[in-house]
Amino acid sequence: MKKIFLSIIFLFVLNYTVKAQVIDGYTDKQSYSAGETVSFFINGTPNDYNCGLCFDVSSNTDFSLFALDGSSTFIGSHPLNFQSSTNSNAWENGFGYTATFTWTVPSTVKSGYYLLNNVIPVIIKGDKNIGGADIVIVYPTNTDNAYTNSGGKCLYPDCSSLGQQATTVSFHRPVERINYEGANFSDGFLSWIKNTNYKINVIADMDMDDWSEIEHAKLLIVIGHSEYWTRQARLNFDRFVDNGKDAMVLSGNTMWWQVRYSSDKSQMICYKNAGDVNPDTDEANDILLRTTEWTHPILKYSVLGSIGADWGDPNTGKGHGGYGIEGTAQPNTITGAFVCNYSGNANGIPNNGHIILLPNSPLLNGSWEGNTIAPFSVGDILHFPTGEYDGTLIKRDANGNEIFDANGNPILDVAALGFYKAEMIGYDKTKYPSPSVVSAGETNYCPFIAFQKNCYSGKVINVSSNMWCSPWAMGGQQFQDNDNSCSSFLPDTRLTAITQNMIDLLLQQQNIWADPTPPTSFDIKPNVNGAVSYQACVDHAINITPCGLISGYNYKVDRNDKVLSMSIDNNCNTYTALKYNISQNNSNIEQGNIYDTIIQFNVSVFPNPFEEKTELRFYLSDAETNVQIALYNMMGQQVKEIANNQTLTEGIHQYDIARENLPSGIYQLQLKTNNGIINKQVVIQ
């Protein structure tokens, strides 16, 4: 009897012994290419560890990478044990888990965003070389980390369980995917594009610091809630577009905060303060690297000039964007009555989608899966929810009041944006910071915009919403606001079709304009609020050409201090410029012939000073020009030949200049053409 009893107990225990499950964890890097090895740091436990009869007998746990569409790739079986954080201030110093196992990425795994056992994020990158991926997709890993409370703190006080926001957060801690009602803002897009035939390369925010990750792509797509950007990432975004490549911004609250990374890339730094007098790195001594809002004038780098819209301006208490419907129903401060943010019944209240202005835009016309996109009419609404909108500059009169068209819609202020060509396909409206308070600031206009900075640059399409890529927009799921007093709604079924149509038009270099006629003239000037977004040279002259602004690696402004303006006539022969001289604190009107001064307005060297290499960029207006470029020391001796009597055509040209064995010091970089000689002083550190 005793043997039989023990056997029964033994069989009972076997029947209820379970394998350990993944609770949380992280990886050693943000993203991986084929052939690279991933180190997984995982905390696990049996799935019913409170049951006294459920014992972990050290059986291996199966591990798979799950895509957002539910498909999975098995990557091995390994022991899994319980772990807890071993570090103090774990939000900043990391959790210190022991590595659970490693895995080398095979070339057969398609680039994408994955979750190990549906818990731990893993980004697998694609082929970044020539002939590789056509599309680079930037997943907002920085935003996910910023909102993560692991270890007790995030970059916000309201998501920090310890009550205070952090200034530095570690990537070596379990990251909570930023979400709304349990789903991430990027899931709809990522689930869809995984099952298309596009050649894609999904990268992390940190990869944007590496120019080689995007250099050979045709199209760059920013998705979700892409809020936290380094300066180098922004420079690379602009460089991509300035080089004639196209970009799509399927994101809202985009490029809001500047961040830095620690030297070992394990931490993200964001003091959210223009003072930023922290001891973590010497970079804090560079005022342009301060971790504050990108709209702060101290950074001299307008978001408007990069993507045509931005979130807000905390320095004035106003902003161009604002919250959409995520804020839910809140009381009106005047009447006390509750209003749903997307009711559309009050001035400045969002319409839960873009009001269509240009139904004939090619972006709204095309086919998807063999079906023609149903046509729009002026005033139709392309329905989808939005948590945070970016807004743009619209035309206003001398008193700051909006100027509307015949249909009562706002007019895009292309001159204030400083773009060669721009169209607003549609828009929504909100207030900054919150549309729930009807008495808040002036109404802001949040665009579905396409623009081209100059006739040589690429085209940018921006939908200005942080939920376009979400399950409740591209994903097609019914949206229910987190306050039940507001009704739910379904997104427009054409969103995915429109997204694919935009991608196809850009990849195939087809027309995206409702009016494809090239501009014969354009103006560049601040609007009545002093807001501008164009770039200005460090020598206080506008980068102007007969086809628009040439974006050099200099600085931009979007406030009314030290603004510059310029216009050219219909024949593109002469210019009139208002130039502000910072050192003399005055301004003057200057007129001249564009072709006589075209070179001096279009030579840039960045970075300068530099340590290892810099880049020379310039614009030539003649059909053919002989160019000589050389570097001279302070004794007038040539120390490096860069170009010797090369024949170049009209357009933008760039040369990488490597330091090699040159000693630190001051040098003269000379550019000699048929039209004259330009010298630029450069410093090697």
Could you please describe the fold and organization of this structure?
By secondary structure, the protein is mainly beta. It is 10% helix and 32% strand. It is built from nine helices and 42 strands. The strands form 13 sheets. Strands 12-8-13-15-29-28-27-22-25 form a nine-stranded mixed β-sheet, with helices on both faces. Strands 38, 39, 40, 41 and 42 form a five-stranded antiparallel β-sheet that branches. Strands 4-3-6-7 form a four-stranded antiparallel β-sheet, with no helix packed on it.
Cα-based radius of gyration, to the nearest Å = 27 Å
Helix content: 10-25%
Strand % is: 25-35%
Task: Give a short account of the largest sheet.
Answer: 9 strands, mixed
**Which structural class is indicated by helix and strand composition?**
mainly beta
Topology:
Blueprint: H1 2-16, E1 20-27, E2 37-46, E3 61-67, E4 72-78, H2 90-93, E5 101-104, E6 112-116, E7 120-124, E8 135-139, H3 141-146, E9 168-170, E10 179-180, E11 183-184, H4 187-193, E12 200-204, E13 219-224, E14 228-229, H5 231-242, E15 246-251, E16 257-258, E17 260-261, E18 267-269, H6 304-307, E19 322-323, E20 330-331, E21 338-339, E22 353-356, E23 367-368, E24 371-372, E25 381-383, E26 388-389, H7 414-417, E27 421-431, E28 443-452, E29 459-462, H8 495-507, E30 522-524, E31 535-536, E32 544-545, E33 548-549, E34 555-556, E35 565-568, E36 574-581, E37 586-593, H9 594-597, E38 603-606, E39 613-632, E40 638-658, E41 665-673, E42 676-684
Parallel strand pairs: 8-12, 8-13, 13-15, 14-16, 15-29
Antiparallel strand pairs: 1-2, 2-5, 3-4, 3-6, 6-7, 9-18, 10-11, 17-18, 19-26, 20-21, 22-25, 22-27, 23-24, 27-28, 28-29, 30-35, 31-34, 32-33, 35-36, 36-37, 38-39, 39-40, 39-41, 41-42
